[in-house]
Amino acid sequence: MKKPLQLTVNGEPKQILVEPYSSLLDMLRDEFRLTGTKKGCDEGDCGACTIFLNGKSVTSCMVLAHSAHDSEVITIEGLGKSDGMHPVQQAFVDYGGLQCGFCIPGLIMSATAFLNEHPDPTEEEVRFGIGGNLCRCTGYNKVVEAVLAAARDMNSKR
Amino acid sequence: MVDFKVLEQNLPRIDARDKVTGRAVYASDVYLPGMLMCKLLPSTHAHARIISIDTSKAEVLQGVRSVITGQDFPDIRFGSGALKDRYIMARDEVFYIGEPVAAVAADDEITAQEAIDLIEIVYEELPAVIDPITALTADAPPVHSDVSDFEGYGFSVGNSNVCTLLDADRGDVDQAFNSADRVFEETYRSQGINQGFLEPMACVTNVEANGRLTVWASTQGPYQIRTQLAGVLDIPLSSIKVIPMELGGGFGAKLRLAFEAFPALLSFKTGRPVKLINSREEVFTLNGPRLPVTNYLKTGVNNDGTIVAREAYSIFDVGAYLGAGPNSGVGHGLGAYNIPNFRLRSFGVYTNKIYVGSYRASGVADMTFAVESHTDSIARQMGIDPWEFRMQNAIKEGDVSVSGARMPKNGLLETLQAIKDNFGLPKKSAEDRGVGIAVCEWRSGSGPSTASISVNEDGTVSLLTGSVDISGSDTSLAAIAAETLGLTLDEVIVAKRDTDLAPFTGPSGGSRIVYSQGTAVHRAAETVRERLYELAAERLGVQPDALSLAGGRIFIEDDPNQGLSFKQLGALSVNSRGGPIIGTSSLSNMPYDPVFSTQAAEVIVDRATGQVKVTRYMQAQDVGVAINPMSVEGQLEGGVVQGIGRALTEDMQLDAETGAVRTSSLSTYLMPLAVDLPEIENVLVKVPSSDGPFGARAVAEPPGFGPPAAIANAIFDAVGVRVRELPLSGERVLSALQGESSEIRWDLDILKKSEGM
Questions:
Q1: Using a CB-CB distance cutoff of 8 angstroms, which residues of chain A are in contact with residue B614?
Q2: What CATH number does domain B27-126+199-248+254-286 carry, 3.40.309.10, 2.60.120.260, 3.20.20.70, 3.90.1170.50?
Q3: Is A18's Cβ below 8 Å from some Cβ in B?
Q4: The complex's ipTM?
Q5: E strands within A11-111?
């Protein structure tokens, strides 16, 4: 039976009735239609559903919606400011760090969370930082280049 | 070098912003009012007769709207490959574990799954055959007892489990082996592979008020879905509209009809939209992967290093149905070499396993692993440098290719040279560290291609093609149009297409978009340019040949101030004598256009565990001209990494008794992660194609072929053992290091008997 839940999603307070078995991912997609967060496996393996829960990156398929009660959720739709994209998003565009794009929202969320804690990473550290996200198209070269470029860009503005 | 204005420059993809902000809409992102969710019931037996299906409990479950079984579909067989050998849903018999037997539409996914669990089926087990070599023996049970009734089945080899036999012959092979100084024989085996696309198969179907069916699909081939769907539902093709949504990876797996027929029939039954999304487990167990391949090679070589003869026998396990053609085995048995005498045979063999599907040039990666490992093995046994041996035997312009066509201008030798110059061979610098190379060959893809370009009133143009964007192909097509018309990339609008709107085209696969579809776009743009010249000439009072085009303007060459901008011409065209300007192009087949790549790997082998780490990887590929270098590199890097996965970790394990897929999750089927990889280095070799747009060749397929052999050859270089079976796992390398033979022996006579030789 659906139960009430309140949380903040991309800065907006939300109140909703959700099934106790629903994952945070399913709630974001099916109830809020925030379809930028992708379901690639529903088993925590691929990273395509990565979001921020209270500032930390999590695979939203592995979190029950109700455990996010009173929490703050940021999805790919809420990452950039309304006047432009987040530097990580811009770098993925500029460096060609995407092909089919299905893994990209999750990769960008993981990369952003990683850069928040490691503002000046080496290439190897970036490869570990996005080590939980599968991408089948790019071979990761340009993804890694984009994350390194985003780090430079963000540091220059600090 | 041509002075390009748009091409040969890094262009951000036109859809990049949508994709990085989460706004790109994939099939699973489609939500319609009243939409039901569909789940499937897979068979639990490798081979069994269906005695009864009881759906009564499922039907009365609250929230269930419809339940269908094979009997609800017309009694019509269809096929994905050359044979019409399957029903869309099992009717009287199941032929593999996972074959869909029933489907449910319910208010939500959980209810649909509950209903699936309530369906009761009584099976009577039939004899099954899992191993393809066993399936070739005389007393093996037939997978299909009525194979001779299959439309497209045009031969008999005395064993009904052989569903295709492809061959190619030239010269006197036996004589050539007899007179050769040395003869080498080896067998290689490669594993089952899942395509690994990140977006699980998904679709939404709806029957519109006018009775037409709309399908929002995740597909590389919207027209192919339309044709096959019309066939299995027995409805007119024109009553179906397929809307290809953003494609979350396909690599061949989404070329054809997949699961769309189930929600489609459920939409007809319920009158409501129905959505189906595969779980990741279903991606692994229900949808055609590549199955293991055995390749036997025999090669005659003279002491001077000249290869004189090749015999190749391939066994392609196709599973229960010929879901994709296994033909690549024949055409690639020679590798990139000029071999005057050959006998090549490729057997497609039915077994009671999940049916085979396409994956990034199906079968060629398997054959390249065999041929390029074998090439290395021969060179080393003869004491010849493997690179020199390849240079010596490389097929050259004017030589006769395997198909009998003369080899056109190509960059094979240049790619070999580029690897030698840039990778620095040989580079064995430390203990247990080695380098290996592999040559990959493919051709630019062909097939029906169409394009339409219209000039807008503001001087921009709209480009319409039926091709689904894969890996940035829309951006490349727009760039070709922009280059031809002297526009910038953002002045070319790429229309979102569906099968009602855009003219028929071949699927987005086989490396055909830039080469074939790009040629159609190029020609359509040339027509538009001619019409613009005519209009400008009329307005400026000169002949068209007095005009020139640059910077979005057509002007008099001798008097550049006299001219008209595209904006002016677009506005003028609307009411011009000839009417609004549109250019179209349509073509069937493009000429044979080879693509070559040479790759090099450096590895370190851990002697204690057998683990192999790739420390460097470089590829040099002849791309002709790089339409969009950033996109070309992306294709090359992604392809190589898929190949590294194939070489080292990916292994779709199938149960030897039941054929069931045992690796059905991303934690058991191991695709490469960023941490597993070195930076992939690329060298773009540019020997322009005679026929591709602006000289461009295909890019996407060859990168994935090379890594298994390049890495196997590097392992040999490092520690002196040759592993002949993929993946090159730590266990296999360790076992070879411990002195166990890695030779694969099997009874070739089975095949020769099958062929009546």
A1: none
A2: 3.90.1170.50
A3: no
A4: 0.98
A5: 12-18, 50-53, 56-59, 72-74
